[in-house]
Known about the structure:
The chain folds into four domains: 17-180, no CATH class; 196-284 and 522-598, Rossmann fold (3-Layer(aba) Sandwich); 289-425, no CATH class; 606-763, P-loop containing nucleotide triphosphate hydrolases (Rossmann fold). 45% of the residues lie in helices and 16% in strands. α1 packs antiparallel against α2 (56-78), α11 (300-310) packs across α17 and α19 crosses α24 (548-557). It is built from 32 helices and 27 strands. 42% of the residues are buried. The chain is globular. β4 (103-104) and β5 form a beta hairpin. By secondary structure, it is an alpha/beta fold. Residues 1-8, 164-171, 487-495, 513-519 and 770-783 have low confidence and may be disordered. Strands 4-5-3-2-6-7-1-8 form an eight-stranded mixed sheet, with helices on one face. Strands 22-23-21-24-25-20-26 form a seven-stranded parallel sheet, sandwiched between helices. Strands 11-10-14-15-9-16 form a six-stranded parallel sheet, with helices on both faces.
Amino acid sequence: MALLSRVSSEASTAFANDTLEDERRYVAMLYRNVDTLRDVAAQRLARTQLHSASNPSARAERDASATMYRERIRQLEGVDERLCFGRLDLDDGETRYVGRVGLVDEEDQSSLLMDWRAPAARPYYLANAITREGVRRRRQLQMKGRTVLDYDDEFLDVDAAPADSATSLTNEAALMAALTADRTGQMRDIVATIQGEQDEIIRADINGVLVVQGGPGTGKTAVALHRVAYLLYAHRDRLEKRGAMILGPNATFLRYISQVLPSLGETGALLCTVGDLYPGVVATGSEPDDVAEIKGRASMVQVMANAVYDRQETPPVKEVRFEGDRLRLTQKITANAKRLARDTLRPHNEARPYFVREIIEALTNQVAANIGRNLLVDDDIEQIRFDLTRSPEVHQALRELWPILTPEQLLADLYASPERIEAATPDLAAAERELLLRDPKAPWTPGDVPLLDEAAELLGWDDRAERAREAAQWDADLEYAQGVLQILNYDEDEIDEEVLQATDVIDASTLADRHDDDGYLSVSERAAADRTWAFGHIVVDEAQELSPMVWRLLMRRSPSRSMTVVGDVAQTSDPSGTTTWGDVFAPYVADRWRLTELTVNYRTPAEVMAVAADVLAAISPGLTPPRSARTSGITPWCARVDAYVDAAPEAVHAETTAVGGGQVAVIAPTELVHPLGAAIRDRTTAEVVVGDGISLGAGIVVLDARQAKGLEFDSVLVVDPAGIVNESRRGLSDLYVALTRTTKRLGVLHRGDLPAELRRLSPRDTTQPTAATEHDRADEGAR
Ligand SMILES: Nc1ncnc2c1ncn2[C@@H]1O[C@H](COP(=O)(O)OP(=O)(O)OP(=O)(O)O)[C@@H](O)[C@H]1O
């Protein structure tokens, strides 16, 4: 078995073009190449913009070209930092450089730089002492900006290793450097140090639902983003047309991850939160957990259907004035019209013309009977019918009996009326019904978004002109959709019966139905504006938090069921969230979804994870904590204090000093966040940001556990852990999240008894750090 050994730049000798100077020259050549490509794209963009287009199709073509060049320039700018990060030397003498994008020699088309996603770059991530994959040496270039500072070598073939090199089975110098670096408030890509279990997920089959379960810090978010970059590379055709969406828990989180895809040369994915999923509505409101929980229940599907039915009225009798007459719509007449309209199985607004036709017919008959039917010829009857359809009184009656409704109107009317709520929610208790009541002017909440979407499905559009245009487009779309489905199911021979295929869940005509051509907009823009957009792939992060109603909405946006779902059922804090993945997917794909796990925690040092593991055991004894990739040598501590607002500023000051330029987060129960923020601000000159919408670059942030979800900081001070536990139904999960946000240091302030689960913390009399922090830092290292 080959051993794996590691040396730094001075020691290696046995390969061609091998000195630090050689590497610097090579990388400088790569940058010259990128600069040339960027200049060419800029010149072409300038030429395109000068071009005056005389007709709409020429304009669309020009705009499309301009967008393409702009994207190319953005892509090349995005990958500038650490463009090339590795090199492989193979048994047959071949050398491959691996980087963020692929570059080829203009003259002979040979590869200068291998895109990290290319199959030939894969050994860079997978080769190890046991499975060498033909690799003799893996070299990691240490880059700062455009400069190669140094490199680290791993020799997978012992014969190739210089005699003085130390042997080690886990040579992860670059990984450890990345893990111990100060956090900047922006997530970084991990492209240079992706680990084997992560690589498997990143490159997994695009088809079907892939669930990635992993504890805190196991790289779920990082892996999900790199997977999107990989899929955009490997399935460019499909995703360029249908787009990829990444759903995250909140806007702060989206800002935190926003730089990762551009740094991987990809700008095309749509990043959004649940609040963004209903075009035209900005769901900025918030509401108590128990209200959100009711709105998230699967039973709201029936509630929304009831709410629509309730608007299709059949009063005992409805009188309509028409040209001096009183016409009578009896319950029998309206009920009959209603039944006929409902029997069409069309959505409410689209079924309305059938109802209207029946009512007009009934009224026409009454008018004719009043005049005397035998006195009238067909043209007279037609005239009566026409007059009735133009009568404001008739219109008013029809509006009352079967109104045209928008989703917003339906939901606002429902929330505003105890009677409507009662009619729509026969299965809710009175107290729950009361929770749904709200001021019609209150802003929409994320919990309303899937209900609006459900309502839109039930109501349908009343836009016949648009439909006519769509019908003309349909044939072209059908042809396109057949193509998409072929791509989705690419090789018939390779189809695995267990893996859900696109054609299992949608046929071409349905997919074609979803396709719409809105002229030239980027795919992300078109997708964001279109409620019925069918994405090529959807990635859901912090997926454990989503309610059944949100899943229902997402499944509509993913008719091919091509999804990557990442989350941790131990971190669920939303009462509508899930603690069992099977429950989520059973209604949509039965058991045809794949589960994969990440097991190594790259964020939280072992000392902190030992504390958090006790909390995890209290959440569910069956869950296994992830293994930490490193220790820090820093002992997590707790201190009993008299008043949080007095003690926290001092503790924050000490932590800020301890982490030097790093970030400190104070995580507290929601009601303490603002008082603590104010107290800390009063006692420091550093930038302090408080609550949601935080600016992530600040040195000190104060937030609650839910706002901290998915984020990480150099030092975390948890204030009032018992308060966090008691604050919500899933308070222990919130505490688990809070404890695992740190990359280095953890302190806990408590007033009363410490929750029993935190017994491993080391008590202190003071909030000042104990050992010298320089010593702490020096101690930090690989396990
Ligand atoms: N292979 C890797 N190389 C370098 N850093 C990594 C690697 N994998 C993960 N990390 C780092 O570990 C940290 C945690 O990753 P990430 O936020 O993706 O974890 P997570 O599983 O989503 O965590 P949580 O569920 O707690 O939010 C990040 O700083 C990420 O960059």
